[in-house]
Specification:
Radius of gyration: 20 Å
Order of helices and strands: EHEEHEEHEEHEHEEEHEHEEHEH
Bound molecules: threonylcarbamoyladenylate, magnesium ion
Shape: globular
Distance between the termini: 44 Å
Length: 325
């Protein structure tokens, strides 16, 4: 496996590789995806093996445009049309009723399918060259931190990927917002850069979050308690506890702050992420990876603000860290 510069020639090569049933990692605006031909069950099975992902965890199918949604989904509601007109291409995946001929290998056995049009020139050029749907989860091993650079993919998946297209660092840095439009009420299954109020403003109706629905049966891998996690124990805590824990000079601690100025010491490696949620998200996974490689006893994360702009980050942090008792 080699990392390829994402020029037109290599994108064409990647498209051929997909047509031959290969696995291609490629950049999107959120994180790098591990792509396979979504209409080829054998190719899709290779994704699950490479990631060590259970087969009942459904994949997102990436398409070049909303016009192709009809080939994969049926009974597409008007709300999807409205969202597509307003947002696409964008970090927004829609859950819709799948067409009967779409293999359940892609949808993890579910009757619904996740579809998205990524807003990244390399991803779009690859999708246009390939012509069909590319099933692509984040290109990391199951439950680990998503890759935001080509080298992260090489580190995570190595030889199990046929080609990695290098399109530089991902702009957004956390995975897409997932909105379920297959039920009675539009429901966010995963927070992302596109916020609940942005969706509500465009749809002109209330958008639900899972806590608001009494019963739910939908399985979303990102909803598991531990996900997106470093191998080093990690904790996220508010300022009092954060200050208290920092006094421990014996443990080797990695520290991620959201703006606070804290000095590094011999046993303490401090990385200051931004107080701006957009910049924070861009760098979060790369910095968690950096700290994870240092063989530390603990990664301590300063609790970011709790408002809508930070929903996606707080969601990922709650899954990357263990609860503070
Ligand atoms: O930003 C992204 O969406 C990235 C890039 C590569 O596009 N992809 C990504 O894929 O995050 P993945 O597989 O790591 O996460 C997809 C999430 C999973 O939590 C999965 O359970 C959920 O989407 N999902 C997919 N199909 C679903 C369905 N039919 N119903 C409910 N959840 C679904
Ligand atoms: Mg993932």
């Amino acid at each position: 496996m080699t990392i390829f510069n994402a020029n037109t020639e290599n994108i064409e090569r990647a498209s051929q590789c997909l047509k031959n049933g290969g696995l291609v990692a490629f950049p999107t605006e959120t994180v790098y995806g591990l792509g396979a031909d979504a209409s080829n069950p054998d190719a899709v099975k290779r994704i699950f093996i490479a990631k060590n992902r259970p087969e009942n965890h459904p994949l997102i199918v990436h398409l070049a445009s909303f016009e192709q949604f009809d080939l994969w989904a049926q009974d597409i509601p008007e709300s999807a049309v409205v969202l597509a007109e307003h947002f696409f291409p964008s970090p927004l995946a829609l859950i819709l009723k799948k067409r009967p001929e779409v293999s359940e290998i892609v949808t993890g056995g579910q009757k619904t399918i996740a579809l998205r049009v990524p807003n990244h020139p390399v991803a779009l050029e690859l999708l246009r060259a390939f012509g069909g749907g590319i099933a692509a989860p984040s290109a990391n091993r199951f439950c680990r931190i998503s890759p935001t650079q080509a080298q992260h993919v090489a580190d995570e998946l190595g030889e199990s990927v046929d080609m990695i297209l290098d399109g530089g660092a991902c702009q957004i840095g956390v995975e897409s917002t997932i909105l379920d439009l297959s039920g009675e009420k539009p429901t966010i299954l995963r927070f992302g850069q596109i916020t609940r109020s942005e969706l509500e403003n465009v749809l002109k109706t209330e958008v639900f979050i899972p806590e608001m629905l009494a019963t739910r049966t939908i399985k979303t891998a990102g909803m598991m308690a531990i996900h997106y996690a470093p191998t080093t124990p990690a904790m996220c805590c508010d300022s009092d506890l954060f200050a208290e824990l920092l006094k421990d000079e014996k443990q080797k601690i990695g520290v991620l702050t959201c703006g606070s100025n804290i000095a590094s010491t011999e046993n303490r490696t401090v990385i200051s992420l931004s107080a701006d949620s957009v910049i924070y998200a861009q760098n979060l996974y790369a910095k968690l990876r950096e700290l994870d490689a240092l063989n530390l006893d603990l990664i301590l994360v300063e609790q970011p603000p709790k408002n809508e702009m930070w929903d996606a980050i707080n969601d990922r942090l709650s899954k990357a860290t263990r609860a503070v008792l």
